[in-house]
Amino acid sequence: MSATASRADMERMLKRCAAGYTMRRTTHGYSIKFNGRTYPSMPKFDNIELGHIRKMVRHLQINRDCARQTIPI
Amino acid sequence: MTNHHPLIFTLRDTISGDGFLAGITLSGRALMVKEDDGKWWTYGVRPGALAESSTTPEESFARFRNRYKEVLFDTAHDCKKFADFKREVERFLNEADAEEEQRWNDALAAVRGCSGPLLEPFSKLPRERPESSPVKVTVENLAAGGRKFKPSDNINDKLAKAA
Q1: What is the pTM of this model?
Q2: Helix or strand holding residue B36 (H, E)
Q3: Which domain, by its residues, includes A18?
Q4: So what's the pLDDT on residue A1?
């Protein structure tokens, strides 16, 4: 069983570490924008495997130390 | 033996949009890693904004491929014109993840410096030099006037281990 975080925790992390981010529901998932970059492939599940969040943090260039204070990526 | 596997792939998709039909061909890069959660993760390098996992490398890549297609579907849903779709798909596919690219390059260097046997299924993948398969994206309007369709337009998904 993979480690997961709730979508609510992910949004909490984004509010804290990615000020000005936007998150939009698409047919197949969520599209998250920050820093002039887009992560359009976040799964729509309530609990999200940490690998997806780790990849989003890397891609959107979110401060990793900040993110780790909310989610153990 | 390295746990990071640099992959090269080519995918071709035909996507229906609102009044247009688009053909997308991507020669891309991904890094497959067995993570501490015991799963095989396929991390996109080009495109960078994509990841998927599973318990086997084969299924991980299949899920990555499917997730990629879903992003194309979502983009088609959001764009009213072919020009908008093309711009958005090219942005998605060209938006690099510099850190992932570095990890991919490091993994390639490790593969080139290792003379030991590869794990299955990587040992069964064809080997390809990145220089012979550069990253490339084409987005075509297939419904543009006068286009002739041929069976030779069809290509299989191609997956190789970078070497």
Answers
A1: 0.94
A2: none
A3: 4-68
A4: 59
